[in-house]
Amino acid sequence: MRTFNLSDYLLQYLDKASGTPRNRQLYRLMRQAILDRVLPADTRLPSSRDLATELAISRNTVLYAYEQLLAEGYVEARAGSGTYVADTVPDTVHLPTVATRRVAAIHETAHLSQRGHRLVAQAGAATQQWGAFVPGVPDVTQFPHKIWNTLQSKVWRKPPIAALTYGHGGGYQPLREVVAEYLKVSRSVDCEAGQVVITNGIHQSIDLCLRLLSDPGDVAWVEDPCYWGARNLLSASGVTIRPIKVDAEGICPSEADLAAVPRFIFVTPSHQYPLGMVMSLARRRSLLDYARRHGCWIIEDDYDSEFRYSGRPLASLQGMDSGERVLYMGTFSKTMFPGLRLGYLVLPQALSKPFVTGMEELHRSGQAPLQATMAEFMTQGHFNSHIRRMRLMYGARLEILQQEIDSHFEGTEVQAVGSDAGLHLALRLPARCDDKLIARLALERGVAVRPLSSYYHDASQGDSGLVLGYACVDDANIAPAFEILAKQIKAYL
C-alpha cells in the first residue's frame, strides 16, 4: 500500500481569495487528482485531522471533501485502516492534468468555429459606455424614471396571465399598435400593427432577417464605412459582404457592383452611420427600383431619426416602397435608454406571419410587462414629450461641441461632418493622422472616441477621423474633454 502527501500538491491550487468555498475547492482538486492519477488507485489518504493541520484549514472543511468523494465513489473507507482511492478510472483513459487545463483555458478561443473566430476578432463593442465622447449613447440621467416607475407599477399591480407566460404573436399587441401609429406619423412608414414585430433591438432585428431570408454564400451590400455591429452580424451569418462606397448622396454602387445582384442591401438612409449624410431622393428611387427589379431585400436601419436639429425630419425609405422590398427597423435604445433592449421590425405584408413564427421558434418572445409599460408610456404622450425635451438638450450640446471644434481647428484640415442630426458627429482628420493611436491616447486620459477608420471594411484603406458622441456629456464637460482630445490631434498638425 502506498501513501501520498497531499499538502504540497493542494497548497499550489487552493485559492483562499476565491469566492468558491474552500470545502468545494478541496473536493474538486482531490477529485481531479484522482481522475488525473496524481492520486493512483489504492492510495491511502491522510486522516482528516492531519490534512487539516497541514493545510491550515478547519477539519470540517476536509471532512466535507472526504464525505463527498466517498458518496460519489472516488474513495472507499476500510474499517480500522483508513480512506483509500477507489479503482474507478479505466487504464485507457488519459485526462488532462490541472496544469494542462490551465494552459488550455488561456487559449480558449482555439475551440471556436471559423465563424466564431471572425466574430470575436472583429468585435466592436467597447467596455466604456458612458461619458465624453462615447458615440450613440443617450443621456440616461434625464430619463423620466418616476413616470416610468408609476406606469410599471400599474402594469405589475395586476398583470394578466398572458403577460407572465411565453410571449407570442410578434410582441405585446397594444405596443405593436402604438408603434405602428407613431411610425406612420413621425417617419411616414406605411404599415399596420400586424406588420410590426417587437424585438430586443437592432441586432436581433438584423439577426432575424438573416436567419429567415439568407442562405450561406448570399451577398449583402453594406455601406462603407458602416456600423460595425451590422457588418459583424452579416459576417457571422455566413453572408458574403460586399462593401459599397458612400458619397454625399449616400450609398453609391458602381457598374460592377450593380452587375452582381445581392440578396441584401443594408443602408442607413436618413442619417448614414457614421458619416451622417442623407441619401438623396434620386438615389432612394434608384435603389428601390433596383431592389424591385432584381428581388433584393433592403434592410433600412433608422436608428436615430428622431433627433434632427435643422429642417424637417426626413421620411423613411420604406414609405416610398411600392414593391414591398424594404424591411424597416428602429430601436428605443437612443430615445429611451440602451438597457431597455426594445426595438421594432416592420415587414412587408407577405413576410409578417412567417417572421412572427420564426421569432417564436428562435427567441421565444417575452417581456410582456416591459412592453406593456412602453405602450402606456407612448399612449399617454410621455414618449413624444421626452423626445422633444432631449432634442433641445442634444442640440444645445452639439452647438457647444461645434464651437469647440471651430475654436481649436478653424482653418485647418480637421472638419466636422454629419452634425445636423443624431447623437454623434464625425471629425475628419488629415491622412497623416493615426486615428487609432489618437483614440487610444485620448482614452488613457479619460476621453473615449472611436477611430473612423475602424468603421471601414478595410481599416487600412479607410479615411482617418474620429467619431464623437455628445449626447451623454454634460454641457460643462464638453469643453475640457475636447481640450484633452484636441491636444492629441494637434500633435499631427
From TrEMBL:
Every HTH gntR-type domain range: 20-88
Pfam families assigned to the protein according to its UniProt record, in alphabetical order: Aminotran_1_2, GntR
Keywords: Aminotransferase, DNA-binding, Pyridoxal phosphate, Transcription, Transcription regulation, Transferase
Single GO term (MF): pyridoxal phosphate binding
Alphabetized SUPFAM superfamilies for the sequence: PLP-dependent transferases, Winged helix' DNA-binding domain
PANTHER family according to UniProt: HTH-TYPE TRANSCRIPTIONAL REGULATORY PROTEIN GABR (PTHR46577:SF1)
Family (UniProt): In the C-terminal section; belongs to the class-I pyridoxal-phosphate-dependent aminotransferase family.
Name used for this protein in its record: PLP-dependent aminotransferase family protein
Taxonomic placement: Bacteria, Pseudomonadati, Pseudomonadota, Betaproteobacteria, Burkholderiales
